Amino acid sequence: MDKRSFVLSQVVAGSLNTIADEMSATVTRTARSPVFNEAHDFTTAIFEMKDMKSRLVAQSPGCTLHLYAVAMAVDRAIDAFKYDLQPGDVILASDPYNGGTHIPDLVVITPVFHDRKPVLFPAVRAHMGDVGGPVAGGYNPHARDVWQDGLVMPPVKIVERGEKRADMFDLIVANNRIAHWINGDLDSMIGACQLASRRIGELFDRYGLDTVRDAIQANVDYSERRVRAEIESWADGEYYAETFVDHDYQGQRDVKIACKAIVRGSDLTLDFTGTDPQVKGFINSPIANTMSFIFIGLTTCCDEDIPINEGCMAPVTVIAPEGTVINPRRPAPVGTCTCSAGAEVTEAVLLALAQCAPKRVGVNAHKMPLVMSYGSYEDERMWVFLNFIGFTGGAGAAYETDGWGLYPPLMTGVILPSIEMTEIQYPTRILKHEYVADQTGAGRWRGTPGLETITQHLVPNQTSVMMEGVRHTAKGMVGGEHGASNRVYLATPEGAETEIPEYAFMHPLEAGGAIRTIRGGGGGWGDAMERAPETVREDVIDGYVTREGALADYGVVLGEDLVIDVAATGAARAARLARAA
Questions:
Q1: Phi, psi torsion values for 129, nearest 5 degrees
Q2: 8 A C-beta contact, residue 515 and residue 463
């Protein structure tokens, strides 16, 4: 490629990513639901149709766990309407067994035409506050099939030739508990796709179809070369790891996710043979969801300046046996798959790759306690509150960096909602939201500290709690310690607390009752005895670690004045090493 062509390919690629960014800004600024406009639980991307299949060509940083799954949703839309796609059409879908994740994640897609042929497909996947079904919010631990997760939507046209289909809108709104939000949220997703369609049309007019497609191909090829170079730097071999989901909410515990990473030159095979069969409960991960979590595990092990597109997955072959918990058969329930078992898929990939690329891996699992409350406002409209504030935390360490932020890379673009806006939009008060000492996984680099949140609801409500990361906590890497267990307590208005060991289903809370969540910290990276004593002392000063924790976890002895006792520290660490030998 000559210099001019290279520069032009970068301009076009940058334009497409900017369009995806503009889609994201449109959703944020026009949606009604706090899940969209506060928490940013959505993803925008652009796909190219090539040989009747879609491939990712541009994206805006969003809720990362959605991203690669959208490609499979676009494929299903193309299959459904390949002879009946028209300019101005907008397709909506939410079917876990047709390119979906869990049912609350709706995807909206529109084809962009050139010379009467569909070429590019802008898409938005977003978590809806409610999706019908027997349980508000779509998290039903008693679900025995996918229809008990919520309203299954195969690919349907929600806008046809530019005209909104009132019948489809009415169907969706009629099956939703928060109709006062859902209409606006769907409009924001449709508007973002229509805006992208106009912008892409302008790009075609400016550069021509051939130039745009050549630029896309050049950038996909570039990403593939970069990822292949990364894989080629790893030692050839087979590397096995396994991890576990605590339980499936219907009696099965310690559900295994197995992964063997096979490195051969610049090719990588991820073989999940040995993973447990699909389960009765709603942790099953449909294949689109599983592929998205694999994509996250791989891309977080590569240089951050590699463009995120289809080329990143080109070197990878995935073996995911059908009928397992990571590739279930319909109609297994899948309601919590975007937490578990999806997060454990990424964790298994990283634990395997840690054996050949230790400096590339970090702890990315988000083993989170989910808390969902719902009730009614004074005017009898329902509210459904997914507590994003309470399940923040858990990001792990990586080589040369401590755990940072509140969300791990699985949820990169998700934003901590404003506490003030939360208290305006819901009958809720956040009484406490702060780090907890000695909850993080120790290591040469430590994980993010644990986080305690107390959420009080001011009106009677029903609250469901779904616990993960109690027995199988966020994993440490390369000798780092694991994070602490998650804990959740439900309290009466008088303050009497009940700890939730595995889950609570539609538990009635009186006005003034509260939910206390203690989020376990992230896992560490490397041997904690190699952490600099002065850095441990700084953690004690910051309140992340206590003096007792400094000694127990790091072998660092601090006086009451927080001065390091060098001799005692040396002795403590020597004794620890001797015991480990």
A1: -65, -25
A2: yes
Strand partners, 503: 466
Backbone angles phi, psi at 268, to 5 degrees: -130, 125
Alpha helices per DSSP H over 162-316:
166-174, 179-207, 209-232, 287-299
Q: CA–CA separation, 221 vs 216, rounded Å?
A: 9
Alpha helix positions (H), 442-529:
none
Counting Cα atoms < 13 Å in the Cβ hemisphere of 482 gives 16
Q: Please give the structure tokens belonging to residue 146.
A: 């996918």
In sequence order, what E strands does 474-540 have? 487-491, 497-499, 503-509, 514-519
Spatial contact of 124 and 193, defined as CB atoms under 8 Å apart? yes
**How far is it, in rounded angstroms, from Cα 435 to Cα 307?**
34
The SS3 of residue 124 is strand
Task: To the nearest 10°, report the CA torsion of 103, 104, 105, 107.
Answer: 80
Residue 365 above 90 pLDDT? no
Q: What count of Cα atoms within 13 Å lies in the side-chain half-sphere of residue 370?
A: 22
CB contact at 8 A, 295 and 98: no
| Residue corresponding to tokens 């960096």 | 401
pLDDT digits (tens, 9 = 90+) for 129-159: 999 999 999 999 999 999 999 999 999 999 9
Residue 382's DSSP bridge partners are 376
Angle CA 85–163–109, to nearest 5: 45
Q: What angle do CA 460, 126, 426 make, to 5 degrees?
A: 25
Question: 3-class SS at 136?
Answer: helix
Distance CA 305, CA 531 (A): 29
Distance, CA of 338 to CA of 344 (rounded, Å): 10
**315, exposed or middle or buried, with CB in 10 Å at 0-12, 13-18, 19+?**
buried
Give residues with Cβ within 8 angstroms of 311, minimum separation 6.
219, 220, 221, 222, 223, 224, 225, 226, 227
Spatial separation of the C-alpha atoms in residues 190 and 480, rounded to whole Å: 45
Tokens of 19: 């369009």
What rounded mean pLDDT belongs to the chain?
A: 94
CB 9 within 8 A of CB 186: no
Compute the residue count for the chain: 581
pLDDT tens-digit map of 448-498:
999 999 999 999 999 999 999 999 999 999 999 999 999 999 999 999 999
Which residue's structure tokens are 């679900």? 143
Q: What is the mean pLDDT of residues 410-427?
A: 87
pLDDT in tens, 523-534: 999 999 999 999
User: How far are the Cα atoms of 87, 196, 206, 215 from residue 22, in angstroms, in the given order?
Assistant: 21, 8, 19, 20
Q: Token pair for residue 185?
A: 């949220």
What does the radius of gyration of the chain's CA atoms come to, in whole angstroms?
24
Q: Answer whether 221's CB lies under 8 Å from 150's CB.
A: no
